[in-house]
Amino acid sequence: MKPPQNLLLTFTLFTSTLLSLSSTNLLSAWIGLELNMLSFIPMILTNNTTSKTESSVKYLIPQSIGSTLFMIASMLHTFTTLSSNLMTTALLLKLGAAPFHSWMPAVMQSIDPKPGLILLTWQKLLPISLLLNLTESQTQLIQTTAIMSAICGSTGGINQTNLQTLLSFSSITHLSWMLASTSLNTTTTLSYLALYSANTTPIFLAMMNPQMTTHKSLLLSSTPKPAQLSIALNLLSMAGLPPLAGFMAKLMVLTQLKEHLTLTIALISGTAISLYFYLALTLSILTSLPSTKTPNQHSSTIMTLTLLPQTLTLPLALILYS
């Protein structure tokens, strides 16, 4: 992809999201969703290989179905209350929440790290923001989806050898926490999304090394030991180990879910299962030595971005217990 085209697509991707977030009616929100989808698909097609084309189609089909359902729900909004159910289902499909999650690992398995990072972070912002407006009438549906996402995401990540596929199942597990927090308040949901994005970014920067596709290639990559330690720290934070930022984000949600016992148990169970493959990968990194001392061009950036979310641990604790 040529740089001018890449810049244009990036600009359109961000502006379409901002258009929907600032919209005052469902029509402009739907237009923003469509522009967002059309801007992201060319990013997947970095080359004309069969795998990239297949991934773009796997992304296009569920997103198109979600956009169609959202448009139909918008048209029926003034005629029936069932439109809220349809609209919520459309947004959950776009997010890749269980039981509509099967397209997410399939797409993540063969796309490049840059669009993969965008898919797991920025592309969640718009649907989650729209869901926040539907939470009051759709709490039961959203919480049921959160329970299913916690179980499906955690069990699906077991025995995965592709890093991006593993992170896609991890994303589904973290999505369950975001969906659960939508019934609380907007600040909690967006704070969790921001911390998740901050923990995920350094890992994808490390994966921009073409050699890193499996757990073993992470150990044999050209990433220096300090950067590998940074990756391990991010994985432990995503696993929710105290006192890292990921743990504080989960604790922030749990302290506000006192009245939802079933949901709380499902979230904790999903995190406990996820902890297994997080620790397995982390211990492999910590007990290995890099096979080469060739520096990775993103090493310093990885280490810097790793430390940033962890510095938020103390402020989160102060806010949580204030």
From TrEMBL:
A Pfam family (short name) is: Proton_antipo_M
Q: Does the keyword Metal-binding apply?
A: no
- Answer whether the UniProt record assigns the keyword tRNA-binding to this protein: no
Tell me where in or outside the cell this protein is found. Answer: Mitochondrion inner membrane
Residues in NADH:quinone oxidoreductase/Mrp antiporter transmembrane domain copies? 23-271
Q: Which GO terms describe its biological process?
A: mitochondrial electron transport, NADH to ubiquinone
The catalytic activity, as recorded, is: a ubiquinone + NADH + 5 H(+)(in) = a ubiquinol + NAD(+) + 4 H(+)(out)
Molecular function as annotated in GO? NADH dehydrogenase (ubiquinone) activity
Q: What is its main location?
A: mitochondrion
Topology with respect to the bilayer = Multi-pass membrane protein
TM annotation in the entry: 69-93, 190-209, 229-249, 261-281, 301-321
Q: Which InterPro entries did the record assign?
A: Complex_I_Subunit_2, NADH_UbQ_OxRdtase_chain2, ND/Mrp_TM
Coiled coil segments of this chain:
none
The entry's cellular-component GO terms read: mitochondrial inner membrane
Keywords attached to this Swiss-Prot or TrEMBL record, sorted alphabetically, are: Electron transport, Membrane, Mitochondrion, Mitochondrion inner membrane, NAD, Respiratory chain, Translocase, Transmembrane, Transmembrane helix, Transport, Ubiquinone
Give the enzyme's EC designation: 7.1.1.2
Q: Which PANTHER family match?
A: NADH-UBIQUINONE OXIDOREDUCTASE CHAIN 2 (PTHR46552)
Family that this chain belongs to: Belongs to the complex I subunit 2 family.
Q: Could you tell me what this protein does?
A: Core subunit of the mitochondrial membrane respiratory chain NADH dehydrogenase (Complex I) which catalyzes electron transfer from NADH through the respiratory chain, using ubiquinone as an electron acceptor. Essential for the catalytic activity and assembly of complex I.
Spell out the protein name for this chain: NADH-ubiquinone oxidoreductase chain 2
Taxonomic placement: Eukaryota, Metazoa, Spiralia, Lophotrochozoa, Mollusca
Q: Which gene encodes it?
A: nad2
